[in-house]
């Protein structure tokens, strides 16, 4: 049955118009330009903590915290854009303020909404999610910004004539929901299992140093502030190579694999026999909403700070601050 599914579809004029101009919910995109000369931090932990906004309703059981998107867009091979997109002007100002305090010399400009789609283009994409249960953390210690890996994969000679939008959508976890209580309980159970003696047919054994270390990592993540994250790719005008492009982009995220916890990011190209599923993924990316095309997972503040880091590469299609 999988052979009958397509990884891309052709859009008509009306469909292209909807993807170019998303729904009525307004987002304020602010394009960022990495400093030309300067010391860029490997992660932006201070920035992530600065823009954090916790909002709940219904006796603090429902999470209505704002969603923010970090997008790496390549509307053509000679142009690579990075932007943060916020749902309010207040958050827009906070992004500019705290990013300036975190990355000295960074530049700002007005970003764009919608997807770079034209009539008769092919559209498709993929979703990135954790390979293990998200209670196991991703890698958080880096010598240079890990987003450099993705920026390098989108250089001007790569994937020629393919337009790309990589979106990292994140939302703070808030509220006293039953789901969050159960998630923490399962995480602490996992940590306890890793630490306890393992019964075997010929006796028992103590937890290995690796299991002890994994238990510490799981327990630490369970007790810290968390975010829901969705990582998605919109691949435009790639035609039959759409699924291959998704795999190529996913390779840039291998840098986040944590050898200590065993956690990694795994890509799933979206395939379907129905056009609406492929359009639905791209519409969710254009609208910047989780929807049914998210495969969202939980990360800590430290993990998110690596995912939304600012690159320090000198690359022809990446514009730096003046």
Brief digest:
By secondary structure, this protein is of the alpha+beta class.
Question: What is the average per-residue confidence, as pLDDT, rounded to a whole number?
Answer: 92
The profile of the biggest β sheet is: 10 strands, antiparallel
Note the run of SSEs as H and E.
Answer: EHEHEEEEHEEHEHEEHEHEHEH
Query: What number of domains?
Result: 1
Low-confidence stretches: none
Through-space gap between termini: 53 Å
Compute the number of helices: 9
By CATH, the topology is Vanillyl-alcohol Oxidase, Chain A, domain 3
- What's the gyration radius in Å? 20 Å
Sum up the overall morphology in one term. Answer: globular
Sheet/helix structural class: alpha+beta
- Approximate strand percentage: 15-25%
Percent helix: 25-40%
**CATH architecture assignment:** 3-Layer(aba) Sandwich
Number of strands: 14
Q: Please identify the top-level CATH class.
A: Alpha Beta
């Amino acid at each position: 049955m999988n052979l009958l599914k397509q990884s891309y579809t052709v859009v008509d004029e009306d469909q292209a118009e909807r993807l170019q101009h998303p729904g009525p919910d307004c987002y304020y995109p602010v394009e960022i330009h990495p400093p030309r000369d300067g010391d860029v931090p490997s992660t932006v932990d201070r920035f992530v903590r600065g823009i954090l906004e916790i909002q709940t309703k219904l006796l603090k059981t429902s999470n209505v915290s704002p969603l923010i998107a970090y997008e790496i867009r390549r509307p053509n091979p000679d142009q690579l854009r990075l932007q943060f997109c916020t749902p309010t002007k207040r958050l827009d100002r906070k992004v500019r303020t705290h990013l300036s305090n975190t990355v000295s010399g960074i530049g700002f400009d007005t970003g764009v909404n919608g997807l770079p789609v034209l009539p008769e283009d092919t559209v498709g994409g993929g979703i990135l999610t954790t390979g293990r249960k998200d209670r196991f953390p991703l890698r958080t210690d880096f010598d240079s910004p890990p987003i450099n890996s993705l920026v390098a994969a989108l250089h001007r000679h790569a994937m020629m004539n393919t337009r790309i939008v990589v979106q990292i959508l994140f939302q703070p976890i808030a509220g006293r929901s039953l789901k969050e209580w159960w998630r923490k309980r399962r995480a602490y159970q996992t940590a306890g299992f890793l630490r306890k003696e393992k019964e075997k047919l010929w006796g028992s054994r103590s937890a290995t140093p690796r299991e002890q270390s994994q238990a510490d990592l799981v327990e630490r993540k369970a007790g810290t502030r968390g975010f829901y994250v969705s990582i998605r790719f919109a691949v435009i005008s790639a035609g039959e190579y759409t699924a291959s492009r998704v795999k190529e982009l996913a390779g840039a995220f291998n840098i986040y694999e944590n050898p200590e916890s065993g956690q990694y990011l795994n890509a799933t190209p979206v395939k379907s026999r129905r056009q609406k599923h492929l359009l639905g993924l791209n519409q969710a990316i254009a609208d910047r909403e989780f929807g049914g095309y998210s495969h969202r997972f939980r990360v800590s503040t430290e993990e998110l700070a690596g995912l939304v880091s600012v690159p320090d590469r000198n690359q022809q299609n990446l514009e730096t601050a003046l």
